[in-house]
């Protein structure tokens, strides 16, 4: 970030970056704890994840208001304008990632008392590992203004999409094997979709990082998975 004659201008832009960093840390923790709660039927942990979302929402609003005020007061151009726009975009994606982690926690609250099917959660753990790594790499790419790392996140999203397809098939098999698994596995299908959508938002963040640093947009067509889709929407 280049320095300005008006130091308060630098402080405004640095404050945006710090708030993004704080949001990223909260979202990473929410995702990790939501999956821990799902794996162990930990109701208290799931409730804490749900409660954490309020702080993420508040930070997103603060960032958006600060970025808009900075644009109004400073009338930034080029990289400075992109800094403000990137902060708005990325905070929106992180806030949505928090919502999706909260959805997983809320599903945990619904199925905590149901009969467990440990095999059904194995694939979700693998999806979580990829999604968490993608999120960390995207946030690091933003902090370091690292275009190559951002492009790698964008390209690797296809792995998460392919794994979601595999999990979808496995859960359908479990449901066909025993109708008593239907309710439990249906909730897991939505958790799987939540993880896939978290991957989409980390990809959005990586696209914004490339735009921030280069001023150029990534291709509109992303790498495709190998097909066989699951459910599209998760009711709130």
UniProtKB/TrEMBL annotation:
Superkingdom, natural source: Bacteria
GO CC term (a single one): cytoplasm
Organism, as annotated: Methylocystis echinoides
Disulfide bond in keyword set: no
Similarity comment text for this entry: Belongs to the PhoU family.
Protein name in UniProt: Phosphate-specific transport system accessory protein PhoU
InterPro entries from the UniProt entry: PhoU, PhoU-like_sf, PhoU_dom
Keywords attached to this entry: Cytoplasm, Phosphate transport, Transport
Subunit structure: Homodimer.
């Amino acid at each position: 970030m280049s320095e300005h004659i008006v130091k308060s201008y630098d402080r405004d832009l640095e404050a945006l970056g710090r708030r993004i960093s704080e949001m990223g840390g909260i979202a990473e923790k929410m995702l990790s704890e939501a999956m821990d709660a799902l794996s162990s039927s930990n109701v208290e942990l799931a409730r804490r994840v749900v409660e954490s979302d309020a702080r993420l929402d508040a930070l997103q609003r603060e960032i958006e208001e600060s970025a808009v005020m900075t644009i109004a007061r400073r009338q930034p151009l080029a990289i400075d304008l992109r800094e403000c726009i990137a902060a708005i975009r990325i905070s929106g994606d992180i806030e949505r990632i928090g919502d999706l982690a909260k959805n997983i926690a809320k599903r945990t609250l619904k199925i905590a008392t149901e009969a467990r099917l440990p095999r059904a959660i194995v694939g979700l753990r693998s999806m979580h590992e990829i999604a968490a790594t993608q999120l960390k790499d995207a946030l690091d790419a933003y902090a370091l203004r690292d275009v190559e790392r951002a492009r790698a996140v964008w390209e690797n999203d296809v792995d998460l999409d392919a794994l979601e397809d595999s999990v979808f098939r496995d859960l359908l098999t479990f449901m066909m094997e025993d109708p008593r698994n239907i309710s439990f596995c249906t909730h897991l299908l939505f958790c799987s979709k939540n993880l896939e959508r978290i991957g989409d938002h980390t990809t959005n963040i990586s696209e914004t990082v490339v735009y921030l640093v280069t001023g150029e947009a990534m291709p509109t067509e992303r790498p495709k998975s190998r097909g066989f889709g699951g459910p599209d929407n998760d009711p709130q």
